Amino acid sequence: MQTVMEKTKSTQDLEEYEIPIIARGKIIEDYSKSFGGRYGAAFRTPDAKKYLKDIVLSNPSTLKDLYDLSIEEILDFLEDLGQHLVLNENEYLKDAYKLALEASGLTHGVLLTTYSVLPTFFSKGAIREMLEKRIGIEYLENWVPTKMNDGRTVSVRAFGARTIHVIAGNVPLVAAGTIIRGCSTRCDSIIKLPSNDPLTATAIARTMHEMEPNHPLTKHVCVAYWKGGDIEFETSFYRPANIEKIIAWGGYASIKHITKYVGPGIDLITLDPKLSTSIIGADAFQDELTLRTVAQRAAIDVGAFNQEACVNSRVIYVQSGTDDEGIQNINQLGAYLYYALTNLPAHISTPPKSFDLGLKAQLDGLRMDDDFFRVIGGEQNEGAVIVSQLDEPVDFSQNLCGRVVNLVPIDELQQAVKSVNAYTQTIGIFPEKLKYSIRDDLILHGGQRIVSLGFAPTANLATPQDAIEPLRRMCKWVMDESSVSD
Question: Which residues have a Cβ under 8 Å from the Cβ of 51 and sit 6 or more positions away?
Answer without folding.
Answer: 21, 23, 28, 30, 224
